[in-house]
Every structure is written in C-alpha cells, then in structure tokens.
Amino acid sequence: MNQDYIKADNWSIIEEGFDAERVKSSESLFSIGNGAMGQRANFEEYYSGKTFQGSYIAGIYYPDKTKVGWWKNGYPEYFAKVLNAPNWIGIDIEINNEVFDLAKCKTVANFKRELNMKEGIYYRSFSATLQNGLEISVKVTRFLSLDIDELGVINFEITPLNGDAKIVYKPYIDAGVHNEDANWEEKFWEPLNVQHSNNEAFVTARTFKTHFTATTFMQNTILLNGSNVNASPINIEKNNEKVQFSYEINVAKEQTATIQKLGGYTVSLNHENTQVAAQNVIAEGLKIGYTNLKENQIQAWAKIWEMSDITINGDVKAQQGIRFNIFQLNQTYLGKDSRLNIGPKGFTGEKYGGSTYWDTEAYCIPFYMATKDQQVARNLLTYRYNQLDKAIENAGKLGFKNGAALYPMVTMNGEECHNEWEITFEEIHRNGAIAFAIFNYHRFTGDYSYIPEKGLEVLIGIARFWHQRATYSTYRNQYVILGVTGPNEYENNVNNNFYTNYLAKWCIDYAVEQINKVEKEYTSDYSRIMSKVNLDNAEIAHWKAVADNMYFPYSKEHDVYLQQDGFLDKELVKVHDLDKSQRPINQKWSWDRILRSPYIKQADTLQGFYFFEDHFTKEQLEKHFDFYEPFTVHESSLSPCVHSIQAATLDRMEQAYTFYLRTSRLDLDDYNKEVEEGCHITSMAGTWMSIVEGFGGMRVKNDTLHFEPKIPSQWQGYSFKINFRNQILKVEVQQNETKFSLEGNKEITVFVNGKEVLVEPNSLVTV
Amino acid sequence: MNQDYIKADNWSIIEEGFDAERVKSSESLFSIGNGAMGQRANFEEYYSGKTFQGSYIAGIYYPDKTKVGWWKNGYPEYFAKVLNAPNWIGIDIEINNEVFDLAKCKTVANFKRELNMKEGIYYRSFSATLQNGLEISVKVTRFLSLDIDELGVINFEITPLNGDAKIVYKPYIDAGVHNEDANWEEKFWEPLNVQHSNNEAFVTARTFKTHFTATTFMQNTILLNGSNVNASPINIEKNNEKVQFSYEINVAKEQTATIQKLGGYTVSLNHENTQVAAQNVIAEGLKIGYTNLKENQIQAWAKIWEMSDITINGDVKAQQGIRFNIFQLNQTYLGKDSRLNIGPKGFTGEKYGGSTYWDTEAYCIPFYMATKDQQVARNLLTYRYNQLDKAIENAGKLGFKNGAALYPMVTMNGEECHNEWEITFEEIHRNGAIAFAIFNYHRFTGDYSYIPEKGLEVLIGIARFWHQRATYSTYRNQYVILGVTGPNEYENNVNNNFYTNYLAKWCIDYAVEQINKVEKEYTSDYSRIMSKVNLDNAEIAHWKAVADNMYFPYSKEHDVYLQQDGFLDKELVKVHDLDKSQRPINQKWSWDRILRSPYIKQADTLQGFYFFEDHFTKEQLEKHFDFYEPFTVHESSLSPCVHSIQAATLDRMEQAYTFYLRTSRLDLDDYNKEVEEGCHITSMAGTWMSIVEGFGGMRVKNDTLHFEPKIPSQWQGYSFKINFRNQILKVEVQQNETKFSLEGNKEITVFVNGKEVLVEPNSLVTV
C-alpha cells in the first residue's frame, strides 16, 4: 500500500519529496497520454537509478515469439506485445561539465511532481546541489497535445542559484530501445533512416515482422530568461538509430536557461510518408507556439471534463480517485479511431500485452457510451466486427466449424495472442461479453442500426460457437458446458460455470431475437447477411435446443446458483476467517491450493447478476451476494466495482463505499503492490460505474433512464453527467435530495426511485 | 509406423539399407547401454546428415533454468535435464585426403546395422564409393562393457576394394557438446583440463551448477590386417575442451586398416580423482585386450539372458519385441547402485528430463523384482527413502506441513523439476504408487525388514500428505480430493479421480497397518521412528477418519466407479466411432477439446483395478473394462500393457494379443512416430508384465505363486523365469499344457488355475 504517499488534492496527483525507491511507481502514476500516444513519467534527463522506460504509440505492436514450457496444441506462435516506442523526450544535460543525474546529486530538495488533471499537463520541479557544488532550480512542463495528437511538448528550465553556469542541453531521439516485456530479449525496431537539419531531427524505424513505420522527431528551441536565443547545435552525434544535438548556453546566477522541445511520432498507420508528416507536425507546432499549445491543451481538457467530470464534495480522496480514473481513461482512448482499443495498462506499461480484452465490452463501453458521443461506443463495437473473420479463424483452430466465432482473450489485430491453455482455450465467456455489449449499446443509445449493419453477423458467429461448444449430457438430459474458466480465474477447467452457461444461453436467445427482428424490419440487410453466413431455420432450431435446455448448477440447500459443478465440495472457510498472513493468496499460495480453495478472484456468478440484474429478484441478488462475497478476495482489479454497485443496490452503503475507495484508488494507493508495472486502466471504467450505476442507481429500461440515488454518509454530495441519446443530463445527489438538469432541447422523463420525473431543458428539478 | 522396416529376427535388431531419413530413428533403436552409461547409435565418423548426438552417464544431470510462459507459484526454478555427456566415440576419417562422410559418398551399398541383443554388441557394416572413386568396405563393432562399466570399445575396420589407400584415423574426445533438450541454449559443461600421452587422452570437464566432474578418455590402437602396428599419432590437435589424434596408415587394396578405440567416462560420483581412475580403466582394458573384452561381453549378457529371457515360439515379431524390451531395460538399469533410477528414455534420448517417474514403482519394479536379485528392487525403494526429506520439502512448498511428503513428478535428486501446474502440483497419485511398491515388494519377496528399517517412514510421510490433501465436504459428509490429474493426463484439475481417491484411502490404511505391525514386532524400530516423525494416535485417528469416509464417484446406472466427478456429462462417443483422421488426438486436437472429450490417454480407473485386483470381483473388472476401454486411445506408452493383462484375465485373448504387440513393438514399429527422440524405456517393463502377469496369469497371494496360464492362438509356446524368493522357477506354456521346473534346492508349491502343484528341484512338472 502506498496510502498517503500521493497527496490528497481535488484536481492533481501530487508527489512531494524525492524517493529513488518510488521512481518506478511514480513513472506509472504520472503517465500522460492523448489517445494516440502516451508515456510513462520518465525523466527527460539521464537518470542512473531504477527506472522503467516506456513510451507507446496506439495501434503499433510487435508479435513476439511465444514462450512456453510445454507446448499445447492450439497455442498461437506469436504474442502481440505492447511495444516500447523510440524515445523522443530525452534531454541529457551537462552543467559546468558535470552530467546532471538526480541519482547523483549531493542533495535534492523541494522535489515535486504534479499531474494536473484539469489541464492535462505534467509538472516537475525541484532544486538540487550538484557534485560540483552548484545549486540549481529546475522546472519541467510536459504534455501530449490533444489537438495535435502526434505532438508532445516539453519546457525544461534550469536556474543556477549560487553561481554562473555553462549549461549544455543535449536533446536526442533514439530508436535503440528495448521492451521490458520481451520473451527472447530480441530487438523489435529496425532503424531505417536518421536525418536532421537546423534544430530538427528525424529517426525513422520500422518494426520487425509487422512493418509499422514510425518517424520519431524533435525540434528544439533555446531560451534565456524566456527569450529565444536562436541557438544552433554546437555538436551533432548520430548513428543509425539515434541523433543527439548539443546546445551550449552560459547562464548567470539566478538567470534561467530553457529548452523547449517539440517531439512525437508520425506513423504509417496514418501517413504514406511519415517523415514529411513529421515535418508538418513540427511546422504546425511552431506556428502555434509553446504558450498557445499549452493554453489549447487546457481548453481541450476543459471540454472533456465538462462532459465527463464527476464531482464529490466532502471527501477529497474519493474526489481525487474518481478524477484520476476518468483522466486515465481519456488519456488512453478517445474513441476517434475504430482500429484502436483500450489496453489493460493503457500507455502506462507493457504488462499483459495486447490491447483488447473483454474488459472493453464488460467495463469500458458503459463509460464511453455515457460520457462521449455515441459514435465512440459504436467504434468499439465496430472494432470487433472488423475482427470477426479472425474470430472465426480462431475458433477454427480449436476445432469449431461453420462460421462459429471465438473472440480472442487478448489481441491486437484479431488474432489470439495469449498462451495459457486454461485461459486462452477455456476462458470463453469473453465471447458473451461481446454480444452483451451489442445489447447494451442498443439499450442505452437506442441506435438499432448497428445490428442489421454489423452486429447481427457477430451475434450469429457467437451463437454458433455456443451451440457447438455445449455438450448434450445424456445423463442430465440437458446441455452442459465442460472445461471452462469463468471470470474467476482462480478456478480452471471447471464444468458448468454458471456465468458462462447463463451467458451462452442468453447469447443464443438474443441472437435469435435479433435475427427475427431484422428479418421483419430490415429485409435487405437480412437477405445480405443470411446469404453471407449461410444460416437456415434448422440450424437456428439446433441453437434453440441448447438455449432452451441449458443446465445451471444450483444448490437447493442454499437456494443459490453454484459458481460451477462441485463448488460445495470445497472447504468453505470465509475470507474473513483466513489468516491475514496468507493474503494475497496469489502471492502466498501455490496454484493448486488456490484452485481447490473456495476463494474467488473477481465477481463471477455476481458478474452474471450484474449483467442480467433484471432477470433476478432483489432477494435473489441478496442471497447470491451474501453467499459469494465472503469468499471473494478481490485480487483482480475488476472485482471491487461490481461488488460496490451491488452493495449499493442492496443498501449496504458502508460496504459499497469501502469497495468504491478500493476501486477508485487501486493504483493511487497501490493496493496490489504492483503499480510500478503500470496502472489498471480498464478497471477504472468500473470505478465510474460504481458511482453512476452504484450510488446513482442509473439504469436504462424501456428507453428511459431510471435512478435510485444513494449517497455514502462520508459525502456531502456528488454529481455526474450522462449523455443520453444526445441530451446531457446532469445529476447532483446530496444527502437529502437529488437535482436533475438538462443540456438539450427537448424534455425527458426519468424515473427516480420508481417515480416519473419530467426534466425540461435548462431548468433544475429537485427530487 | 515403421512396420517392416526393422527385420524380424529372434535375437537381433536389424536394419538393411542406408536411408538418411531413418538415421535419427535408428540412432534410438540401436542405442547401447550398460547401466552406468549409454549412447545413441551415432556414427563414429563425421556425418553431415540429420543426426541427434547423444551419450549419457547415469546419475549425471544438469539443472536447467525453468522456462515458462506464465509463472505459477510453486514452480521449481530449475529442471534437471538428462545431460548429453562429452563425446568419446568420435573418429573422423580421411581416405586419400577425402573426409569420409556417409552423407557425401557416391554410393552406399549393403548398409547393415545389427544390434545383437544376445551378445550386447552393436555391429555396422557397409561398402561405399567415395567422391574420389575409391571403394571401401567398412565394419564397425561397438559395445559398452558390462564387466567394466566405465569402458566402451570400438573396433573400426576399413578395407579398400579397388585401389590402395592412405587412411587417416582421427579419433577424438570432446566436451564441447550441447543438449538437444536445453531451455536457453546454454552450455552445460565447463572444461577443466585436457591431457594426453602416447595413445591416451583425457578431457576433464565439470557440469555447471551441479559440479559433477567427468573425465572422458580414449586409448587408440592401430592394426593392419589384424596386427598391431604400434602407431603413434602423427598430429595432435587440442583446445581447452577437445583433443584429437591423427594416425596415418597406408593400406594396399583388399587389406584392412583397423582402429581399436577404448573410451568412456570416470566420474566424481565414484572417484576422488577421475583422471587417475580413467588411466586405471584403460590399463585394465588393455590388459584384457579387445578379443577377450568382446568374449566377456557375450558371457555377461548370456548371464542376464539366462535369468531374464522370455522365449516365444512361432511368432518371430513377438519374440523380437519382448527381447528388445528386456534388453533395453537391462541396458538402462542393472540395479547395482541405489543412487540411480530408470529414466523414461534410458540412455536413448533426452526428452522429458529427470530420471525418475512413478513409472519406476508402477511398472519397473515388478520386472526387476522377478528377474534379478531382490536387492535390486530394494535399491529402487531405498532411492525413494533417501529422497524422503526432499519429498517433505516439496510438499512444504505447496503448503503441506508436519512431515507430509509429496514425491516429485520428475526428479534426479529428489527435488521436483517439472513445471506444468496440472501435472507438477496435481498429478499427486504418484505418491500412492511409491507406497504401493513397498507393499508389492513385501508381497513378492517376503522381505519385511525393509518396512521397519526404511519403508515405514515413507509410508507415514505419504499418509500425512493424503490426510492433509483431502477436503471434508460438508455437502457430502465425506472426504473428497479436489483438483487433481489422474494417470489419464487427458483430464486436468478434476475432482475425485477414482484412482487417486482409492489409492489415497489405501495408502492410509496400509500405513496404519504397518505402524501397528511394527509397533508389535519391531519395538526398537518403532520407538526410533515414532520419536523421529513425532506421530501420535490422535493424528492416526485423523488419518483414519479420512480413509474410512472417503468418497468415490459411482454411477448406479452403469454400476461402475466414475473416473472422476462429472465423467458422465461428457459426450460418450467411443474411440471406435471417432473418425480416423482425428487420431492421434494429441496431435490433431487443441488441448481444451481433448480435456472435455471422454478419451483416456492411459489406464486410469483400470490402473486401480490392476493394482487392487483382489479388492474387486472379476465381474466388476469386466464391467469397468467394458466401460472404459472403448474410450481409451492409448496415447501413452504405459497404457496397452495394463489393458493386455486385463484382457487376458478376462479371457479375451485376441484383444490381449493386439495390446501385447502394441506394447512390445511400440518403438520397433514406431507406433507414435517419435522414436527418433528416443525409446520408451519404462513402458518396456509393462511388456514383460503383459506376458508374465497377463498371459502367464502370475500373481502372488499369501506368499505363494499363482498362475493362470493362457496363450495367444498365434503362438506355439512361450517361457519365462521368475526369481521367487531366491529360487528360480521356469514356466513354459504351450497350447495344451504348462511345464514348471525349478532351479533351487527346495520344493515350492504353486497354484495353477487354483489347483495346488508341487514343483521339486530339477524336475519337470507338466500341468
């Protein structure tokens, strides 16, 4: 736990004091991104201490050769790794002939990092005494432009405090980088070309195998006390992958020498000629100028916050937590490009590889759907539609036929790139989340057009998979689903996971409903799709047989659905009664012990109750929550949010609040002692859900918004906005009342605790 | 399948004709060994074609750093690999200045390999036309001395047929070898010292990490037409790991130039100073001389065959098969050294690593017990006793306490060195086989002394493990064993595998019985052990609670025990109805598909019926055989033998014969298309059991031998010998009668088909 290390603040993430042991954690927490690229908060200058260097470009990946101990049939040959991109931020510094290195200074004082989330700008400042006795004050400002998303900006100021100084700024760009997460220590980038002229430089490199080309660029301006001195490099070093300029500037005591570095990437995903594109980006950046770039950045973030902010009054840590989550989600994905998706670590690290997990459909889409234009969610759905052929191929590798689709557990381009049989081959519930997201999109946006245009083909591929994957048990005279891993990855290769079976049945039922609806209402789409997928009524009847006769494990004694067959055979000792020294079990116990224990990594049966709340009574939810929650260890980042929502639904506000804090400050407080590897991005959308769906009780039923507002006793009030079908509804919940107001042009009716409430444009309704 | 490639012959394995594609397979099949070392049938001379070079020393291994995709808690850091030892057989050859290379000859004719199993000698001969037009005839003889088990002998003869020749023999020894099976392509040997004098040379090298030192040595003698020409090297090349001599000899047409090379290894397991030891071995070898060494070899093998041969009349392929199995078992392990064990590939390859699996206890001990002095089986038991502390440590790593022992799945020195969670952590039935072997040893030999001296401590550690590993299911009000892999590795992480549960119960019951017996009859051993293991009656009562109340999955409908919970949920399509194109499923199907199928890799429930035949009626055996055999794909080498025995027990002789052929000729006919990786050594003991226990129906009950002789219709007769309590009983079965005769000094009573028969020394009894 990192608790109290990050200063509580409503709008900023703040670290005070330099602690070499915290550098890697802070590099994760202070990461910046603009949807198109992002980077860890590495120092610009040389640093000899422990660091994890990382800069990432959306959509650019590397298929690393798979590493396994024992090969299993069906494993992919390659694993798409999040690819550390060339370094554009680097600025080596020499001061009075000493290499400036924070790890080597005599003293470092007033060290402060501030990630100003309101502005989308990362600040760092400190004073230091060098080995040579010179005291300096340093201020660094860095941001990745939202407006020009190929451009990053650094303003690096040094002021000598106790003497004059000769400062050499040595900015560089370097494609000679390696991945922390590499299976075989191979190089992933092949340098192609290094060019420079005046104060600009370009390193063009290409990924091996995938052949993405990226031009990394920089442009440097030197200022003295804020005025451009029109400096040129006094020296240029280059090799085939790196170029470094040296600028020398003599500064009198208490004067300030500044380097402004523009940098970034232009890539072959977006440009024919990446170097020309880079030149254009530099030209545009220079035309706007540093001050305006910074001002524009603040404006652009203001626009994002205008829509997506959640305010919490009376609880600074809770406020900081939710804003950190919303900020990171927006840094990671802005929804402009349907080729992109939301990686589990965003731009903050490399772990896990791949950019797309079922997290997108189960956790992220609700956030983007409610805080952005609905096109964003549609882009996320389209991403999967575009990968349908690969999902069919993937299913084919596992022996499925006739257009059955199995979406991969982890992917960059639609191909499976995970290799652990119990997950890769068996955590098939992911397929259901993809169908559920289509349903959820339509439920929320009312936009049915996606289904006849694209979604129905996906639903058919998924229904085919479930039909083929189910087994008819003559013994039970029902269909069973054998050998799966549910969302609770602390069980492997189990039979009849309730969540999976329930979702499978629902997927088939939903697909059949949509086929019937499209047949009636979208005749030409229907003909096009049916001739493409070659589906007939006989096949649909076979699907229905599976859905209508699916087996669900159930305990009469406890009156609950069982997580899987045999769950009751376990030694049912509650987490509460487990010795604390045994936690977290994923660090303390061998894998077999975890597997035969009753402990649940993340919501599993309860995930089903979350998706299909309407299918069950509140009493059923309560019974299942009371049965499963005591065995849940929440060792997945995706767990506390679902429990927070359900605790709130069950009016257990203290529990809901505890889960909320855990989900919202997971990384800030480093609950799992692993934040130095990067932040948990996708679960951050779960934090948003905890407030809006949990405390706010927001649901969409019959094309109408419903709320059951609740508020933790610790808070004075909270507010959020929902983009509901192109009207923006603001909800402000206080201890005794809830206020609704509307930015839009036509009234809407919402239900508050079951009571109809009319909200008219630009007027406040208090309930 | 390799069928008909190896010529049918009663006593030899014969290959005729040179086929470069078969070289690696033949290298496995023609391997030689003497229990202390062994090697693949690699050519002595340089060969540029595809080859798998391998020479191995018993007890010398390397802990290779584990390679996994996704680390699981509990995995060992290192995996003990079968270690390719330095090369001592190498003899490069130049003939009229051309490097002789079978892959480059213009023609190769009359190529023949013969592994004469009666003699224990490997012969190779051929004629060839070199690129330079010279025709030569070559004869090579090689063997590893049984009498001097550190010594190998090569006699290499070349006769030019169509002209005179200058022949340069360039024998070498070389520690610069690598393992085919290496996780990280690292070097495993560190060269220490290279020495030579006269015609002798020594390369001393040490394994990294384990620090085994081995001196590899050679001594060379050159002969012309059979007479020693007292040649000295004309050239000596050496570096820090290799030394190579050159001998030049001019040979007239049709004269014969021979090199006799003595070589081998002396190792720090057996000697303080390995080089001095090597010098002694050479001196002894030279003293005896080539002709006598060869003669002694034939005599030594005759002694082995005298006791362990099985004859089969009227079926050459069946005869060749069983002799190949007996021969390979004796090449691999002779039982002299309790530090050694029986690796799954013996000295024929590296695959799987480790030298000790449960194969030893379940399959090999019966063979060694009946064909060797009983000390050999006792040595194999002692091997596990000596590793008890490591087994307790191993259990500790998985969370078990208080002296519970879990023997490793794979080991060299007692430490677990396998890393696949579903096997390493869950294939725990192996522990039961180790207890069963103690019971079986006592049953067969009548030697109880092993139990108070050593065995009881092992039984206690194992009983403690099962007690702790079982879980009390309040739901069933019985003990269950969750999350295991049975002998059928096509199921992973199942609950209540019948075989495992049954064995666990038996282990506890048997341990308690032995504790009680030792308490009464071996008081001082009892006190010693009890104070060492700190066991009291309360603990024993806890064990008994588990054993007395163990749950076994059972189907009323089928009246069979179920392989595991949920087996009946599977789609029960019999192997017979499976499309042939889908076989073998381990090559054609993805792992998840195999897991959810009903297909059984090897006897599982039936393995339990094999161990505990007496606990069940013949009707029960028949019911279970009929239920499980149709789902068994026999994709493990350990499967057909058990089925052959049970088919014979059930009087299904055609089926028993088919299984017998499959087990006995598994490698010769290359059923699994993998013999080039090495032979399946441990399953060869199963072949022996198929005849003796299957066809012969041999059992030991109440200290007496029982037989129910049967004979396949394809055979005229077969015979085998049994060392039963230091008397040798010979059994000859013919279509209509069985003859018994005894080498020993006191009569014994046996039961034949339930009828008492008295066999007196040196007289033949016909039944």
TrEMBL record, chains A, B:
The record's NCBIfam families line, in alphabetical order, gives:
PRK13807.1 (NF010380)
Identify its protein family. Belongs to the glycosyl hydrolase 65 family.
Q: Name one GO molecular function term.
A: hydrolase activity
Which InterPro entries does this UniProt record tie to the protein?
6-hairpin_glycosidase_sf, 6hp_glycosidase-like_sf, Gal_mutarotase_sf_dom, GH65_N, Glyco_hydro_65_C, Glyco_hydro_65_M, Glyco_hydro_65_N, Malt_Pase/Glycosyl_Hdrlase
Q: Which UniProt keywords apply?
A: Hydrolase
Tell me which residues make up the Glycoside hydrolase family 65 N-terminal domain.
14-268
Protein name stated in the entry: Glycoside hydrolase family 65 protein
One of the Pfam families matching this protein, by short name: Glyco_hydro_65N
Give every Glycoside hydrolase family 65 C-terminal domain span. 698-758
Taxonomic lineage of this organism? Bacteria, Pseudomonadati, Bacteroidota, Flavobacteriia, Flavobacteriales
Q: Which PANTHER family match?
A: GLYCOSYL HYDROLASE-RELATED (PTHR11051), MALTOSE PHOSPHORYLASE (PTHR11051:SF14)
Annotated Glycoside hydrolase family 65 central catalytic domain ranges read: 323-689
